[in-house]
Batch of 2 targets.
Target 1
Amino acid sequence: MRFVQEKPRRGVICNYGVTERFKTGYVSVDFVMPLTAENATGLSLLSGVLSRGCRRYPRMDQISRLLAGYYGASFSITASKAGEMELLSFSFTHLDNEYAIDGEDLRAAMMDFLQEILFCPLIENEGFLPDYVEQEKVNLADKIKAQFNDKRIYAAERCKELMCAGEAYGIHEMGDPETLKSFDPQSLYRFYARMMREAYVVISSVGKDGGGFLDPLAERFPDRPGAMPETEIKGAAGSAKEIIEPMELNQSKLNLGYRLGQTALENGAACRLFNVLYGGSATSRLFMNVRERLSLCYYCSSNIDRFKNVMFVSSGVEAAKYEEARQEIESQLAAVAAGDFSQEELDHAKIYLIDSIRSLSDSESALASLMLSGTLRGVLQTPEQEIGEIEAVSRETVIAIAREAALDTVYFLKGVQGEQ
Amino acid sequence: MIQSKVYTCPAIGGAYEKLIHPSGLTIYFMKMPGKARKAAMISAKFGSINYAFTAPDGRQVTVPNGTAHFLEHKLFEGEKGNAFDFYAKTGAKANAYTSNDKTAYYFVCSDFFEDNLEVLLSFVTHPYLTRENVEKEKGIIAQEIKMYEDEPGWQGYFTMVQGLYQEHPIRRDIAGTAEDIYSLTPEILMDCYNTFYHPLNLVLAVAGDVDRGRVLDAVDRYFPARRELPLQSMPIHEPDEAGARLVERNMLVSRPIFHLGFKDNDTDVDGFALSQKEMEVEILLEYLFGKTSPFYSELYETGVINSGFDCWYDLSDYFSFCVISGESDDPKAVERCAFKHIKALIDGTPDEERFREIRNGLYGALVMETDQAYGMVNRMVGNHLNGAETFDALEALQKISAADMRKRAMGMFSEERSCLSVINPLKEG
């Protein structure tokens, strides 16, 4: 496994993950823009509209049939956020040519198809097709609303939004209904043209090929005018804010948002290790205590965002057990901060994380996203290099990360019985 | 003596081996040279539908809903600690699940495979149930039950299943209610364990770059001798037609969520015929309702459904039904449109070209899955418990014609055997 990075244009980066492991090939193109309401909404809407068709394949069923005919090649366009960046990602997976029954060149066909989608959209009157834009606006509005259906995700997003109100990070990756209303076929087309001109471009391939084959694609993008978008990192405000919202639910959702400190920011490997030890695995402090020892919940876990340098803890609990669960979550963090964990626990966390990283090399999309996040962070590391860093993490660094973690926001979605 | 048979798929250069261990345990072994990820799964043919049975000592036992699932949680407990304490030393990602018809325990790892296999086999073969640890689990599972009570997707699906079936034990809730699980005792759980966690009722699957001899050595140690198993046949009676054509509930959702189910009571199919049936239904669903279908275009372009739409086939030894599901303000229009396209296929001639594209697509997806250790152990275990062989599907795909697909549509879909469930918004989201 090796990673090769080329920069054929300013702001256009090509990554190659070279490996013989797969029966398939994978390519993705990511456009990176700063996270603003306009960009999040616009890129999310574009993911829908561009999926509908292009000049050569104007209907969705034509695209689906094309992909099915290429032995079930998959293709998707998705918008997502990474720290305070919004990404629009075009990716495909295809069967290697050697497995094609009639000897087709599947990779060439898919590269060709990708470029049709990217560069030759369906246009009329200097805008996208009004029908497609209208329908996809309705779909996106639906999707934004449908988040409410999964209360676990809803509560986690609400906590993020409350903690980072006024920061770009508080903007949802799908954008918001108000900004969505402002897009019409022409303004969305102008937005698309701006993305094609200005957004940072990261092209990644995973497969047997070591380099060069992405060049014809990369060269179609002119030099980018600006720098890679940055994420602003803030410290916690003096005391934590607590927000309790009632809803007619059987189970309450408890979410805690933390700001991490300088040590976490400078030691990515240690930060991930801290998360595994504290709440990121089925052998973590949170799982073993909040669930196994106290039987307070079915799930209780932590996750970190290394771009924004924040951590979130989430759990589903009985409304009456709010105080007890919150206290245990906080006291487990205090225990890690006090160094109250064994060398064995730390070693286990290392083994757990190393095992996960090793497994990445079996998944093309996981390798591609590792290259992408490395590129966005400015440090491209292979799984082997990441493992080396994790092995070297010291106990003191983990303690320092826990000690610097500051509780910012507690969000409790409180289950109450209905009136009917 | 170990009986062994190798199944190969020349088209992909892949093979796996099926062994019958002297204890009666069935083992699937698939070598994946050069892959980092390794996986093992052991599964008992014991799920929520097995609520009444004869214990090995001849007693007739009836257990509350949620018992199989509760036992799954408890088999992670051992005299010397929790299974997770052991997996912690190796870094494996371990988990388990219980469905209507099976309980499966598995891990995925890249290192220490043999240690992990020891943990898996030792915990599944050594139940450790005490009053205290059974009590402790009740709080955890009560929260799991409450979580599902608030999940509209699951509630909509299960409401549909209960409408579709009239008498079938699939109507029983997998996790049970809080009341069900609070009535459980170590004795009830051990009755289930002694009846269903017998080598003849278990299947183990291993995939990855793993040493075959060491896997068999470990099995020898944990499954020393053959025991006889009083055969548990479970007669299921289910009337042909659905119990209800429409079932509705209200929950906190942004837009109505629908599940439209079609049951087929022809569950006496095994072996190659079953794989062929499964592939016919998979192609059929994609042909009728997939993204390349006129049905999908028609409803998507008019905004009746959105990209959250999905369709799938639920197949087991005990049941067989198709589901189409999504969000819609007009679920009845979705139902009408579905039957319109089913009728058009049955009354007309299938589009051969689209049929072939779908068949190719399905073939490619199955080939890609043969690279995935977890995907393969899960598939080998599931197929075995249903009475099928995994590679048969690849062979069947090459035989199926558009006419077979059309014929399958006639058997699979009828209005009398369908049920529409709708979760309506309780109030403005």
Target 2
Amino acid sequence: MIKTVICTVCPLSCEVELTISATNEIEKIMHNRCPRGKSYATTEHIAPRRTLTTTVHIEGAIHSMLPVRTYEPIPKELLHQVMQETANINVTSPIKMGDIIVRDILGTGVNLIATRSM
Amino acid sequence: MKQLTFDVAVIGGGPAGLAAALAAKEQGATRVLIIERNLELGGILQQCIHHGFGLHRFKQELTGPEYAQRFIDMVCRTDIEVMLETMVLEITNQKQIYAINQTQGMMQIDAKAIILAMGCRERTRGALRIPGTRPAGVFTAGAAQRFVNIDGYIPGKRAVILGSGDIGLIMARRFTLEGAEVKAVVEILPYAAGLTRNVVQCLDDYGIPLILQSTITCIHGKERIEGVTIAQVDQDWNPIAGTERDISCDTLLLSVGLIPENELSSQVGIQLDPVTNGPAVDSNLMTSIPGIFACGNVLHVHDLVDFVSQEAETAGCAAAAWASEKQYSSTRIIASTGKPGPCCPTSDSIPFDGVANECCATWGSTQIIIKPGNNIRYVVPQRICPDKKTTLYLRVRKPDQDVSINVGELKRMKHTFIRPSEMIKINLTPELLARHQSDYLDIHVVKEMVHHD
């Protein structure tokens, strides 16, 4: 079976072609223009992951929301659960870019970090 | 009125302004100023909390605020002066800036060089003239982005998005994640206007339909928007009768294009390119007024901030050179001869007529006029100095594949895919340009013969 995965790592948006065996194994990867495309397509076939970017409430800062993200991509199916988790978070200024807001969010092993100082 | 003097004054503290100021400083400009209208630096990046910035520049995927913070931190480590919450009211061709803020009042800032980095604005419903009632709930996508990401409230629960520009696609995902329902993204073109990766990770991931070759023909609702009528369009973008259908919604987001913000530029008489809506510039990104430079989205709308930073550095370096005493004296000498270089081209394309001569005179070199040819929508800079390393930024008119982009007879660059949404960058060296004889350089797309197995 041939499966096309559009790589989202960079704006080139390579249309990576995967040849999938009857046992769902990847036999061949084609049309990726760099190694990142290969690893993206592989992960995308086995267990898709996404970086989540959102906001949490912040007190005492110039704005009322602090932008945050998962330090690394997390399983795609957990995105909505993480959104519910972050909805109730309230932090206090000052926060520095890179500060950990939630350690090991939902047991993913990935930290939620602040993406700016505020 | 308070009077101040600077070598280089940068108008706008977004990604272009930050990079331009830093480059000017590094290039040796002594007094550099950034004037910013907002209460913080970073520009639009501060509300672009999604990731995907900085792959070219920092070799990693950063969010907008992270990308901005890196430049802000760099600016903070220098003696670049920053004026926040300060509005520039007017600039003059003598490079005086009239600005105002609450603490210092009205100011006159004399600069040896000015860099325009005011960014762009979103097209609104008024620009599109969508028929229907005028209810609340119709927002530009960027305004909605600010409400959600900075202010922390969501402007609606059931949204339709008109236009598949990148901000619209990003907001489709953001609304969905925040618990709102995005009914559809409606696009008049036969393909998405934004980057393919954004279609994949913002629409496909969440099952949001992208309705192509369609537009909104009516907005319904009295106090608050209650729905829209959409219809398919023909090849001339006219709605096709009988294809109309209604979609109910309480919010309409518009992501229908960005317009460079050139109110100050046109006020002072800087020549604008009618295609980019930004100033026509040379290899140094100098506008038609000597000593005034432009970079970033005020010059032409970019899709990648990485390219904005790079372009801004070109403007910053050139502005610093211009501001230095050496440049000043050489300019005066050339100007005093009153004659441009021997083979100074004058353009037969109306908008830039006469500009080349002036720039030749001020920079002391002859220039080549760039001519956008087959399937090229625009090229920036519009005229180039052959003795300078120049980066051309260009956009194509329509998507194609297996083509090459020809730079006159000088360069032939193969592309598997070309898309209007993806800006193309071409570097030209003085060695290469020395081989070019004509006053014009034609850039065009040609189809490659490809043998498929």
